[in-house]
Write the structure tokens for this entry.
Amino acid sequence: MLKKTMLIAVSSLVLLTACKQETKKSATAEQIKQEIVKNNSLNKSTIYYFHGNKRCQTCQKIEAYTQEVFDNEFRDTLDMKLINLDAPENRHFIEKYNLYSRSVVLAKAENGQEVDFRNLDKVWVKAGDKQDFQNYITTEVKSFLFN
């Protein structure tokens, strides 16, 4: 009887130790996963669409065409942010990116810091042709951010 009780106690201790070790491994794996996500987000560049309170038909096309390119080609590698320049807290973007109209801007990030940007100033000219516009956005993103 004593041997059986001892065997049960030792088996329980082994199982508890194994469970605790597995929990530690899982926590470590989760921490690594979070670190990878954190590091990827530190290097995640952004496509900005800057708009105002009032949006003309061309402004709406620029936003929709840009969103579609983002959704179809860059969702996993970039962020996309829509910024209302008429909001007082966003006015600093006008000077930061040398904006003179509603625009699409690419901002490159490395180690959590913006290191460069490009204002895609041809979006207004190309907005009349969806395919030409989207080719322009795709080409600019690839040449600026991935080369």
About this structure: The radius of gyration is 26 Å. The chain has a mean pLDDT of 81.
